Each structure stands twice: as C-alpha cells, then as structure tokens.
Amino acid sequence: EDPSLERHFKGHRDAVTSVDFSRAKKQLVSGSMDSCLMIWSMKPQMRAYRFLGHKDAVLCVQFSPSGHLVASGSRDKTVRLWIPSVKGESTVFKAHTATVRSVHFSSDGQSLVTASDDKTVKVWTVHRQKFLFSLNQHINWVRCARFSPDGRLIVSSSDDKTVKLWDKTSRECIHSFCEHGGFVNHVDFHPSGNCIAAGGTDSTVKLWDVRMNRLLQHYQGNSAVNSLSFHPSGNYLVTASSDSTLKILDLLEGRLLYTLHGHQGPATCVAFSRDGDLFASGGSDEQVMVWKTNFDADYGDAVKPQKYGSSVDGTHGTGSEMDCGIHHKKTKTQDSGRTQEQPEEETSLANTLENIMGQLDVLTQTVSILEQRLTLTEDKLKECLETQQKIIQNKTN
User: Fold this and answer.
1) Where is this region: Disordered (predicted)?
2) Where does the pLDDT of residue 343 fall: very low under 50, low under 70, confident under 90, or very high at 90 and above?
3) What average pLDDT does the segment 16-43 reach?
4) Residues 174 and 74 placed together within one structural domain of the fold
C-alpha cells in the first residue's frame, strides 16, 4: 500500500513549525507561529491541550525519550520544559540572546541541545535546567542541532551554509561539511549514528558518512527542504518541502519512492513516530497531518516503487549506501534498541526502568516549577516589604 493520510488536526491559528510523537504514540505535539504548543491525543474524540506561555512564535518542540516532558524553543529567546498534562505547567529558562530554532533531547533524556539565531549551539542539563557549554564556530544563524544516538557527537546546521560535527566531550568542531549551496534548514543523525542527512534552501538533501567525512548520497529536488526525518529502520527518509510536498526517499536504492500531496502551501516540518508506523507533518496552512507509513512489516524489503513518474524530476542518488549502516535493517528499533530474541523478563525490566525515569522527569520538573513559584513569591514579598518601609519612612518624615 501507498502511505495514506490517517487524520488531520486543526487548531493552530498560524503556520505549524514543528511536530513530534510521544514514545508510545499516544500524543503528538506541535508548535506554531501563533505562540502556542498543542498536544493532540491520538485517541478519537479526545480534546487537544493548548499550552500558553511563550510570548512569540514557537519554532521547535520535542518529547523527551520517556514521553513525560516536552521541550520548546521560541522567538522570545527562551526554552520551556512542559509536563504534557491538562494543567500544562512549564518552567522557563533564558537560553539564548536571540530566537531559539531547535531543541533536542539526548537519547538518555539527561541533556538538551539548543540552536539559535545568536549563532551558538548550547547544551543544558534537563533536570536542573543548568547551562553547561556553548559551541561557537558558526558565523550565521544556527537552524538545527541534534545529538548522535550514543550522545557522543552533536551535529548542527546553519545559514552560513555549513553542517558542523562536534565532539561533546572535547567541545571541538571535528569537521565542517560545506557542500550545500544555501541555508541548511535541518540536519539529523541516521539511527546507526554513522551518517547524517541535511536539507536546505538549495533544494537538496545530502547524506554524509561521519566516520570518513565524505558525501554518500545527494538528492536534487525542486524547492527548499525545510525538514527531514529518518525512519527508525534507517532505510528511508521523509522530507518536507516548500513546494507543499512530502517526499519519501529509499536510501537502500538511492531513489525517490513517493511524493505526497496534502498541505496547501509550504510543508514546514515532518517526523516519524518512534516505531516508524506513522509520520506527522505540519504546514503554513495551519494543519497537522498524520500519515500511515504502510511499509512492509519487514523493513528489509523494498517498498513499492514510485507510481507517479513526473514527481521524480531531477532526483537522483549517488555514492554507496552500505557505508553508513543503512543495510542493518531487521530487528532493532530506534526507541529501545532491543532485539526480538531477548527474553521477556529483560524487556519488562527495561520498561520498568523507563517508567521510573519518566516519573523522575515529572518529579524533577514539578520541583523546578515549585522553585520558580517560590522565587516569584519571595520577590513579591520583598517588593511588599520595601513598599511598607517607604510608607513608614514617609510617615515619620
């Protein structure tokens, strides 16, 4: 079967900028130019939550690996961490001196990397929301930053037309990829961690091997690529473009499989679910769409070929796909890394540990919210005392 549109959500009042699924696919979060986040339930007839807090456009959102927190970045220069429940409580930390365009959790949920128009990439601890360090070699706005699956590397993309690879421990830039001819809007790691993909205003998607620092594949499209997402198998890539289309690329064969039409106007963001069964997209038409992947159950088998020949204009792949681990395709999934042969007891223990970590996320975030409220209360008390003292002084004078 071809990928199919399952449902669409309406509620935003301006362009949708970012989408992400929770780990169990129970919820979908979206950010928008309308300054709101919305949490959509994947259950029919369940109401959406609208989260208010940012004072300007929300440009990026992401669920934590446990699904118990949501991070967002905004044009108001702040990052917020939210508990995705009815109350929609959040803590705010001043992250950058300009618009925050990208937020991304490490796979263990302990760190957050952010990218900004202040030309920096910053790394933070999640639980204490403490700033750790900055990466400062970009010479223009930084559009996107991502941790590698093992957390040892960071990749960033910028309006300076470069993609930079950083070592998290040494905090040094270990390579700059300069093949893009325009602003680089989005970048991400392949699930294997061995290669990266980037898309930009030059209408191309490029894949590089990060061990050999060489170009593996190149796809030429017809309009700017705004966002991309790897399928958890690592064999497919979906992109969102300014020509309103979503494209699914077969990385095994280096070709375009599908061109999907749904959005009216530019498609701004796209993301696969953790298991790859669904993907979501957002656009300037204010809509969030959820698509069923309909790939074969065995992701090692090729998906059906592209049926609409006219949509592959100028698209081609080059280089060797085998070098970046794309051929490793059957048993592992990105969210857990467990193989099907592992004992049920081990799976159960891992699930229990994940649940405990998720509860810890909520507890520490609740403590942070209480701390911020306490600080505000203390500030108000100080103001009241100062006012009272002035009144007393005026009376005695």
Assistant:
1) 306-346
2) low
3) 95
4) yes
pLDDT at 170 over 60: yes
- The counts of H helices and E strands in the chain are 1, 28
Length of the chain: 397
- In the predicted model, what is the mean pLDDT of residues 93-99? 91
Residue 177, strand partner residues: 163
Q: Quote the domain boundaries for residue 375.
A: 353-396
How large is the average pLDDT for residues 192-219?
97
Nearest to 68 by CA among 16, 130, 23, 121: 23
CA angle 53, 140, 82 (to 5 degrees): 20
Structure tokens at 2: 């071809």
Which carries the bigger pLDDT value, residue 23 or residue 189?
A: 189
Could you give the CA distance from residue 14 to residue 58 in angstroms, rounded to a whole number? 11
Rounded to an integer, what distance in angstroms lies between the CA atom of residue 325 and that of residue 279? Answer: 22
Domain annotation covers residue 369: yes
Average pLDDT, the chain: 85
pLDDT value at residue 308: 27
What does each C-alpha distance from 98 to 116, 117, 262 come to in angstroms?
A: 6, 5, 33
Position 337 confidence tier, pLDDT thresholds 50, 70, 90: very low
Q: Are residues 219 and 79 in the same domain?
A: yes
Same domain, 152 and 223: yes
Q: Write down which residue in 262, 292, 322 finishes a domain.
A: 292
Cα radius of gyration rounded to whole Å, the chain: 22
Distance CA 184, CA 102 (A): 13
The answer to whether 79 and 91 have CB atoms below 8 angstroms apart is no
